[in-house]
Write a structure and sequence with these properties.
The complex is a heterodimer. Chain A is an alpha+beta fold. Chain A contains 22 helices and 49 strands. In chain A, the strands form 13 sheets. In chain A, strands 8, 9, 12, 13, 14, 15 and 28 form a seven-stranded mixed β-sheet that branches. In chain A, strands 40-41-42-39-33-43 form a six-stranded mixed β-sheet. Chain B is globular and about 40 Å long. Classes of the chains: A alpha+beta, B mainly beta. At the A-B interface, helix 19 of A face helix 1 of B.
Chain lengths: ~1000, ~100
Amino acid sequence: MTAPFRLPSGGRIDRSRELAFRFDGRRYIGRPGDTLASALLANGVRLFARSFKYHRPRGVMAAGAEEPNALVLLEPGRFAEPNLRATEIELYDGLTAESVNRWPSLRFDLGAVTGLASGLFVAGFYYKTFMWPPSWWNRIYAPAIRRMAGLARAPREPDPEVYEHRHAHCDILVVGGGPAGIAAAHAAAASAARVMLVDERPNFGGALLDAPRRIGDEAGAAWVDRMLGETKALALPRTTAFGYYDHNFVALAERLTEGLAPPERAGRPRQRIWHVRARRVVLAPGAHERPLVFPGNDRPGVMLASAVAAYIHRYAVLPGRRAVFLANDDSVYAAAREFTRQGGEVAALVDLRPESAADADGLPVLRSAMPVRSLGRGRVSGIEIASAPDGGTRRIACDLIAMGGGWNPAVHLFSQSRGALRWDDGLQTFVPGGSAQAERSVGAAAGRFDLEGCIAQGAEAGAAFARELGFETPRRSAPPEPPPPPALVRTAPPGGRGKAFVDFQNDVTASDVALARREGMRSVEHLKRWTTLGMATDQGKTSNINGLALMAAGLGLPPAAVGHTAFRPPYTPVPFGALAGRNIAALADPVRRTPMQDWHEANGAVFEPVGQWLRARYYPGGGETMREAVARECRAVRGAAGVLDASTLGKIDIRGPDAAEFLNRIYTNGWKMLGIGRCRYGLMLGEDGMVFDDGVTTRTGEHRYLMTTTSGNAAAVLEWLEEWLQTEWPELQVYCTSVTEQWGTITVSGPHARILLEPLVEDIDLDPAAFPFLSMREGRIGGAPGRIFRIAFTGELSYEVNLPWRRCLPVWETLIGAGAAPYGTEAMHVLRAEKGFIVVGHETDGTVTPLDLGMERMVSSRKDFIGRRSLARPDSRRPDRKQLVGLLPEDPSEVLQEGAQIVEAPRETPPVPMLGHVTSSYWSAAMERGFALALVKGGRSRHGDRVWASATTGDSRVRIVDPVFYDREGARLDG
Amino acid sequence: MMRIECPWCGARDETEFHYGGEAHIARPADPDALTDEAWADYLFIRANPRGIHAERWMHAQGCRRWFNALRHTVSHDFAAVYPMGAPRPEPPEAET
């Protein structure tokens, strides 16, 4: 197979090998060193994609990251990567790619009718058309438009690739490996400074690889090789600096397996994200050429002039036989000369300007001429040109239109660094103004386009930064004065009929920009949102400047007054997988395991996440449903005895002579009179008076306490205690230590708890007469030193056993062997709710005071504590605050939905006044009915009232009752 | 991501720290003496300057110590870090 547009010599491709690949099902041959775009161009392919909205045929326009059109889906299937730029995909043998946004095929696309009906699809069309009848929008219009519009479909399967993250520090980071960047890195690394040099392409050299340039007596490519060989700088190719954040933090995406087929990638990360903290940053990312805005400027065969030069020199591809060059800039002349030298025919060089200093070198130049429109069906067959003197038009046949509207410095990273941009009237674009961080832009990125100047500027910046950081390095001469800027013609509003595209990727035309202005969009930010100009994967690399220039011209303002939209990371798209790195699946968040976790797993527990813990929720046996299992566990506790793994409870050891005073300030109730070996329930508020946490704290010594917290809140509580000790009360001598994972906890609960536990305990009298409720004893349990607390969350006789973490499991197994039933967190919840005990996070949500919960007796009036003053705020004393109540559904078989809204009557016309909501709801085995806890406005004075609980599952009639359902007298506490 | 100078551990990435809001807000010695409005001021009202802001940070994934800092809310430059209880230093230059 021959590639008809491949030049017989030149390029950076390997002609000794062939690579077979497929695009849209057809087989082609390319060469190592090709990109997908260059290989397809070599094969004569011009149609690459259908456009976003109008489904217009599109070819390749650029040769790098700024490509707006040629997006493809690489490797359909497991390894699918959507919306990659064909200009950046390095070819490999067996590569398969598909064009995006076409149906049924690229050549014959039914969606192209939107182009015929394009009057309906102008900018902002979705705000105006397809609005009637309103009910059709969600059901019919939006799904249809979403199917038609857009780019490639996201893969549905898990990504089989792995990605890595790496952190790095360096003295000087140089972004961009063109002449300016290489010179900067070389000069900086001549000192002892640690230097990194990154470039998004596989080869360093930047624009030097796009033209036959000489530096001194060296060829450009030889200079690149020599400089890179000499420097100690860490040079990373295929590495895109995509985000510039605070304090010189720069994020890089390094593509490690680019150009390799999926089987060859196995075991290697696809990408590595570098988090680089650089003391100084040199920005040398170069510039993007500006398209010209004229009707039909999106037709396949219209390319950037610089891209034509790049395809010739990098890949030995001549992208056409007969070309018309459109020039608003002298650099186009060089590209045209090169096209001729490689055997192409330049039909005309149409210069928009009346004169130019550029070397015409026999090219057929038309001055003061304008493109009227491109000609052709599907691809370019000619162009219509208007010449200034007579204004007459003429048609020129060609198969390639190469346009150059001037250059836009790639100021994206500079702008992300919060540097201020300055409008340059000579270059007709924005250039870096003042720096906000320790950074300097050099080369084309700084608006400098002469090669010698770029190199001198880069070397000077690299050396100056190295010296600034204290490294010894020779002083470099200041760069020469830049040549005068080329006189550019302002991008004029296009004349002819037809769509003149500003943003190719989003199908935004010059008339859309004008329409936006007529609709009252005055700011570029409004223009962007109204037209979508500058959005999607290319973020306006080729379109932003043209768009705002048109906007400014329409408003009669200088472009500087219109300004620019914010440049946001990422510079080019980064896969989510790369951002996630290894932090996925089991590694996304650590799972904390209790000493009994293996036992729970082996015994078929169903787990629920509580903070980072996975707690056993219930233990279904013999095909039980959840309700059956939980009811069985509840009956076991109330009727005999159960054991609960409560090891996840937060435990904080608090010591120091001021510990009691500290607890007094932290908790709502008093702590100064608590005797050694006694326990007390405590309630903690935020300074706003809202419940923050609760738990039992035990005085374990003269100046020592053990605080327990809720499982999910342990770290937050410890931080809260530390905050007050360090910031407000440094005079208190108190020390807090987390001991959560030093002590495992087994709760033995139920009338038989004492009988079951007694054989395991050597030196503690478990008799309730000797060991009263809310006290603690130390002794040996199962042969290990431990503590037992008389605490009861279930309302039954309970012993909470604390043992060293590794000594818990034998005790747990012995208790179960003796007949204790393991119960999980769900049964625990049912049992505590039957007793009306709150759970922080269920009955509280940061807006609930102790008074709302009916816990006035917990609130001391004899001391100050955190949050106390807030309880006296008028809002805290409103009589219509939501208060804790019990609910009983009229239908006893019903279990209400948690979160159901309490309303006076269902199905009223909205807005329906909300009285409150269900906070906990369960099936009670003891009552043999459903019951719930709820927060209801003024609920404490409404016991007996009937209201409705309204949920997605339906409306339920419920009766408001006291929140304590079971053993109100506490008769069961001592067994 | 900012780089923050912990007074005890040195410069570390922002992700190691917890932000603690405005500094130098002392808890009233006698909350009962405050009007509801004055108490609400203490609870809720904070400075939101465009410029130097005195604020609290905690090195959560390091020494777990709280400290104060002067940070410019636009440039994110840290003008000073200083211990809890120390008076607010004068900013090096009058910035707004």
